[in-house]
Amino acid sequence: MRLLATALFISLLAGCADEADDRQFAGDEQTMAQPTATSQAAEAPRVEASPNATEPPLSEAELFLATGNQVIVSVISDRRVLVYDYSARTTTVVSLDESQRAWHVDLSPDESSVAILVSPSKSLDRWDVVVVGTDGAISRESSIVGSGSTVGVGSDVVATGTGGIDWSPDGSQIAVALPTGGIYVVDRGGSVQQMSSPGRVSRPGVVAWSPTGDALAFSSQPDALSGLGVSVAPTNALPLDAVTLLRPDQTGNRSVTDLYWSPDGESIFAVVERRETGGARGEVFALPAAGGNPEVIWSPTVHHVNERVQAISVSPDGRVLAILVSTGPHNAAVVLKQVGGDAQARRILNGSTEHSEMIWTQAGLLVAGMPTGTNGNDGLAVFEIDANGVATQVEPQATPMVEATPEASPIAVSSPIGSPIAVDDPEGTPVAEASPAGSPAPNGSPEASPQAVASPRTGATPGTDD
């Protein structure tokens, strides 16, 4: 991966036309095919030439052959985190009380632990990272800001960012972007170090480590009215010296909601929501990590203009991008799009989910989330798309999920990922990064039986790096 030491001046696609057919996409939405044996509609890919294509088009069979080695997926909802083991077909529920609320959750690379970012339910003066084993047992709790921490809450910390959390590729560190400002790193021992102060990054969003762990991409906004842009910084020097890849949109019409690195570290896939079109209009861009023009990887066509991107995932070989879209209040679909080519296919899911995640198993793509409107009270809805392109719902099973009752003082979850909170005006300086003129700016955003879960505190004292 190539990272520049100086600011990258990148000009995004001029105009960012609102009409779908004004864009040049790497493929279009597909026509409907006959329903599969599971009565779920499938769409065969239609290949059209694209000036952005660099690879020969894949066949539909090749699109569905993408696999991985993951078996665990973690999903967060109000006051609970659900951890699903695909190999055992079991769900572990981490139940949380009303004294705290959770903002984000992320699964460790070795699939042994989940990290949860929590705050008090009625204030934002304390932030903790709780690490829980996938069996439901808490291993540690680290205080980032507030009681027991040496990092204080300053007047320049504001509650408008959405925040984020991400494990490093080797599992040794956890990057945390606080909704109240600042980016921190927590190591395996529970020690905390400040990577960027709230004065430099006052409203951060999602964070994402590069595949080699030597860079961190994150979204941020300079003020409450702007959309979230994208920056990247090397992690070998602190505080982070970030450069801008996608300038925040001052009108608030465009905003980045998710980031995902390509396996080779050359590109960062960004989900950009657009308000000015009158619909949800989630689009996926590939932002070159070392400069160059962004590429539109996927966008709703005229016939699917109101679809919203819920989640994305790149296959381990980097050839296929999976895009989960909501097609209506109770409908969803998965689009498999060739990276660097024109081929794509579409599969309709038998239902819709919220707070969804996607992983690549040895059998194919797995989609897991809370059934729409349930907050996880009835467990997870899990769908599998296998190597033959057949979409099957594997959860819920006939036997209902049983939730464990915590034995000791539980931790608590409330706000789902990306939930906005109160907006204040900043007193500190906004993120200081170069922003090229003419770059479009994104739209503003204020992303076995279950085990009992205890909540012991480790008493670790975090450090700082101003």
Notes on the protein architecture:
With 466 residues, this protein is mainly beta. The protein contains one helix and 29 strands. The protein has a six-stranded antiparallel sheet, with no helix packed on it. Strand 24 and strand 25 form a beta hairpin. The longest helix is centred in the first third of the chain and has 4 residues. The chain is globular. The N terminus and C terminus are likely disordered.
Produce a short descriptive summary.
The chain has 466 residues and is mainly β.
* Sequence of secondary-structure elements: EEHEEEEEEEEEEEEEEEEEEEEEEEEEEE
Radius of gyration: 21 Å
Oligomer class: single chain
Give a count of the beta strands, DSSP E runs of length 2 or more.
Answer: 29
Mean pLDDT: 74
**Uncertain regions spanning at least 5 consecutive residues:** 1-51, 152-159, 398-466
Beta fraction: 35-45%
The structure class reads mainly beta
In the sheet with the most strands, the strands line up as 1-2-25-24-23-22
Cα separation of the termini = 28 Å
Sheet of most strands: 6 strands, antiparallel
Number of helices: 1
Share of helical residues: under 10%
